[in-house]
Amino acid sequence: MRFESEAKGRRVPLSEWLKYMGKTKHLLRKENEDLLRELEEEVERRWTKSFVAVLDPHSEREEGVLFPMMAKYIGRTTGPIAVMEYEHEQAKARLAMFLEKTAQLPENIDKGQALTLAGAVIEAHHILDEHFMKEENVLFPMAERLLSDGEKEELFARMNE
Fold it and tell me: How many domains does the chain have?
């Protein structure tokens, strides 16, 4: 399963945001001063807000549809579903912190503040990069094996509502 979002009239895969953040991480490692100044600008905030707008429905579909269906077979308090929900919480918390802090930025921020803000988004990137890999390589194949044909049809219908 791959989820995409409408962004200014075109479909943008979640992986595009992750690639963007990977490039940002690379530049931050070099402590690129231009990038640090850009963190004050609205570009990163808009990218993050757009991604959160895609991530939230993705998480809600998983937590509200896929996870309960799989929980009948494997439980929900430990194991893959518990891990996936924890990763949702961790990524969302970091992205929310970034958005909250950048909404109140002063005219000038110091390098430490910029690195802290960038660090939150980079951590979310790492969490989600691994999370999406686990979905593709573990969770979705497991659902394919566990769910009956009828459950798969119901899952598809409910995920696309």
Answer: 1
